[in-house]
Amino acid sequence: MDERYRVNLINTSSGVRNAVLIGTANAQGESNLAIFNSITHIGANPPLIGLVFRPLSVDRHTYDNIRETGHYTINQVNKGIYIKAHHTSAKYPQHVSEFGAAQLNEQYVDGHKAPFVMESFLKMGLEYVEEYPIQANGTILLIGKVKHLILPTESLDSQGHILHERISSVGVSGLDGYYKNTFIDILPYARPKED
Amino acid sequence: MDERYRVNLINTSSGVRNAVLIGTANAQGESNLAIFNSITHIGANPPLIGLVFRPLSVDRHTYDNIRETGHYTINQVNKGIYIKAHHTSAKYPQHVSEFGAAQLNEQYVDGHKAPFVMESFLKMGLEYVEEYPIQANGTILLIGKVKHLILPTESLDSQGHILHERISSVGVSGLDGYYKNTFIDILPYARPKED
Questions:
Q1: Would you say B169 and A15 are in contact if contact means Cβ atoms under 8 Å apart?
Q2: Interface predicted TM-score of the whole assembly (ipTM), two decimals
Q3: B162 chain-A contacts, CB cut-off 8 A
Q4: I need a labelling partner for B78 at 20 to 30 A (CA). Which of A94, A122, B120, B123 fits?
Q5: CA distance A120 to chain B (A)
Q6: B 51-70 residues inside an 8 A Cβ radius of A
Q7: Average pLDDT of adjacent 10-residue blocks, chain A of 195 residues
Q8: What is the C-alpha end-to-end distance of chain B, expressed in Å?
């Protein structure tokens, strides 16, 4: 099997994964922005989110900034910015901010050292908690705690669900296939059938 | 904030996550099926996928079976089976198989000890590799290697991308909000803009 074909096949086999932009800054305040599709819900109480990094030999900016300041942001990609979000994956030199390169605007919240993406409708400010180096292939699972959650109240239903179609949230399959989320249903809590 | 409202808000803040059914069997061949939304791509070569388990105090069947046989399956949920897939989250006693309870059919592949879901269009057979207990909240990241990949050739494009709209793949936000994936675009590899 052709190598590129095989990589696409494996990368898309784990399905459409949520697309987010990770915003960081170094201690000098130089910002960085990078698209990721590897966030995972770890727990609701305390609110914890995991993020898988490729081996650090590849790209250290986002990881280094998180370790330097302890802060980062997770910004939901939406249909209006997915092309700009994808562009943050281009390899810019260290001192070029992908915010400027992708024409996305920085937004700051008091007390949080990492920049949010103004154009995102669902933004979280996180604080580093811990990390696990994955023996099997040198990737890293980094876990953070949600300290800030910023979203329009119109995106919420009466039970606290964020309605992702209202904020046109986008996911990505592999590195390049973008999909929007089309709402089907909210199902009731499942209980055993009585036979 | 109301506790249930807060949990929904946090659970849906990490976006729409891919919905899959994990198929397992114990050493006696009794099958188990459970819906998960916590799989993560870990690497393409070797092909590794991560799966986050809630603390083992909650439900051990899927985890115990994986540790007992070393095998499990990941079956993509699609629009035709998402209601059945959701039903596997009902708390059945240990010796009741959720395959039967949810009216989904088992399918076996030679040499693989865990059952696949016949009605899924994208199925993977995995072998246990390693696991990491997460200090922060008692969850577990379990990593497996893809040994079998079963899908219709019609779901693939010429570059090896699985086209998730063709197999009507479904994601879930929080524990109960189901979404289908509507294709937008495959974007080219991003290169820095010349200024």
A1: yes
A2: 0.95
A3: 9, 12-13, 173
A4: A122
A5: 13
A6: 52
A7: 93 97 97 96 96 83 96 98 97 92 97 98 98 97 98 96 98 96 96 83
A8: 49
